[in-house]
C-alpha cells in the first residue's frame, strides 16, 4: 500500500529531526557539537563523515522504504586520544574473524589525530546481549 504524501512528509521530517542526535550518540559527543560542525562553525572530518553517512541512510529509507532498525551486535569501547586526551566511544560490530585483524586506526573527534586501536580478543568474542 502506497503512503499518502502527508504520511511521506511526516516520515521524512522524523528521519531528519533526530539526525544530529543519532550522530552525537554514535560518536559519544553532544548534539550541539554535531550541529556546529554541520553549520561549518567547527571542523571535524570524522563527524562530517558520520553526518553524511546518517544523511544517506535517511534518504535511503525515504526512497526504498528500507528499515533503519536492523540490529547489529556491537561492543562500545571508550578510548582516549593520545594527543589531546579527548574521551570518545567507538562501536565495533561483531563479526567472524574480527579478533584476528589486529585492530585498526581511529580518528579523534576533536583533533583528527589518527591513532592505532587494538581490541582485546575477549571483547570481540562476546557475550553480546540479544
Walk me through this protein's architecture.
- This protein is α+β, with helices and mostly antiparallel strands and 130 residues long.
- It folds into two domains: 5-64, no CATH class; 74-125, no CATH class.
- Helices cover 42% and strands 17% of the residues.
- The protein contains five helices and four strands; from the N terminus they run ααααββββα.
- The strands form two sheets. The protein has a two-stranded antiparallel ribbon with strand order 1-2. It has a two-stranded antiparallel ribbon with strand order 3-4.
- A hairpin with a 6-residue loop joins strand 1 and strand 2.
- Helix 1 (5-17) packs antiparallel against helix 4 (45-64).
- The protein starts with a helix and ends in a 5-residue tail after the last helix.
- The model has no long low-confidence stretch (mean pLDDT 78).
SSE pattern, N- to C-terminal: HHHHEEEEH
Q: Report the strand count.
A: 4
* Radius of gyration of CA atoms, rounded to a whole number: 17 Å
Please indicate the count of domains: 2
Overview features:
130 residues; alpha+beta; 2 domains; two-stranded antiparallel sheet; 42% helix; globular
Amino acid at each position: 500500500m502506497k503512503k499518502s504524501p502527508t504520511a511521506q512528509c511526516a516520515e521524512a521530517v522524523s528521519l531528519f529531526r533526530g539526525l544530529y542526535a543519532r550522530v552525537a550518540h554514535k560518536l559519544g559527543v553532544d548534539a550541539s557539537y554535531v550541529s556546529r560542525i554541520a553549520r561549518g562553525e567547527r571542523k571535524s572530518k570524522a563527524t562530517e563523515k558520520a553526518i553524511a553517512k546518517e544523511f544517506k541512510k535517511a534518504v535511503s529509507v525515504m526512497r526504498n522504504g528500507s528499515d533503519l532498525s536492523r540490529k547489529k551486535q556491537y561492543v562500545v569501547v571508550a578510548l582516549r586520544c593520545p594527543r589531546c586526551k579527548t574521551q570518545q566511544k567507538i562501536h565495533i560490530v561483531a563479526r567472524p574473524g574480527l579478533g584476528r585483524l589486529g585492530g585498526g586506526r581511529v580518528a579523534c573527534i576533536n583533533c583528527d589525530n589518527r591513532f592505532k586501536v587494538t581490541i582485546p580478543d575477549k571483547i570481540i568474542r562476546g557475550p553480546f546481549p540479544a
